[in-house]
Design brief:
single chain; alpha/beta; TIM Barrel; 8-stranded parallel barrel; 10 helices; 8 strands; 47% helix; globular; binds cytidine-5'-monophosphate
Length: 238
């Protein structure tokens, strides 16, 4: 099952109770939900199944990165959970991504499979330290091309990179962008932020939004406001 919501709320909570408190305030038509390493390590697959059983599209953000056989096996199990989207690290290489894609394609339920290219926490110096010469932007582009060639459905990228990737990778490739901040919101620790409207104009398919929604006094009001902003800009683009 899938719906039209383009906002993916990052459920970055340390425990199940506050996460479920938020989830009880929203419905599956308003947003999709992202479960990352912290909450998954705490609450496990059962929690993911709870969200799926409540009708939510769940993005399982575990960024698998291992030998092809292991990543394929992990993807197969993730498919069984009924998630809507899952991801792997593009740095795992073509063979690993192709194996992941094959595992998803053979599953009875097939979530979207996307790749993380270069973590936004890595700058040019950090890349050089791990033996990668060149700028993050260059690596983002070549890894996104590799992900597409390996049969993946899209990548996670910053909204600043979305325009370049949309141009190079075509209209169908899914661009999932974090670092989104409504015009009046606190940036927090995000360095390169963009408003929901600008991210959509730049070619983003889905927007990952965490704290501006989860830490708001009235999370549903902020979610509604962001969704309206997206709707306005998409209808103006048609
Ligand atoms: O609270 P905030 O809106 O900054 O949350 C953004 C979410 O997107 C977090 O779950 C964060 O881990 C994730 N993310 C990110 N930057 C990336 C990849 C993922 O902020 N490059």
């Amino acid at each position: 099952m899938s719906n039209d919501a383009r906002v993916i709320v990052a459920l970055d909570y340390p425990a199940v109770a506050p996460a479920l408190e938020f989830v009880s305030k929203v419905n599956p038509e308003q947003c999709k939900l992202k479960v990352g390493k912290e909450l998954f390590t705490r609450a496990g697959p059962q929690f993911v199944e709870t969200l799926v059983s409540r009708g939510f599209d769940v993005f399982l953000d575990l960024k698998f990165h291992d030998i092809p056989n292991t990543v394929a096996a992990a993807c197969r199990v993730a498919c069984e959970l009924g998630v809507w989207m899952l991801n792997v690290h593009a740095l795992g290489g073509r063979e690993m991504m192709s194996a992941a894609k094959e595992a998803v394609a053979k599953s009875s339920y097939q979530p979207r499979l996307i790749a993380v290219t270069i973590l936004t926490s890595m700058n040019e110096v950090a890349l050089k330290e791990v033996g990668l010469a060149g700028t993050p932007k260059e690596h983002v582009l070549s890894l996104a091309i590799l992900a597409q060639q390996s049969g993946l459905d899209g990548v996670v990228c910053s909204a600043q990179e979305a325009h370049m990737l949309r141009d190079r990778l075509g209209p169908e490739f899914q661009l999932v962008t974090p670092g989104i901040r409504p015009a009046n919101a606190d940036a927090g620790d995000q360095k390169r932020i963009m408003t929901p409207a600008d991210a959509i104009k730049n070619g983003a398919t889905f927007l990952v939004v965490g704290r501006p929604i989860t830490q708001a006094g009235d999370p549903t009001a902020v979610l509604r406001q962001i969704s309206q902003e997206i709707e306005q800009v998409t209808s103006a683009m048609m």
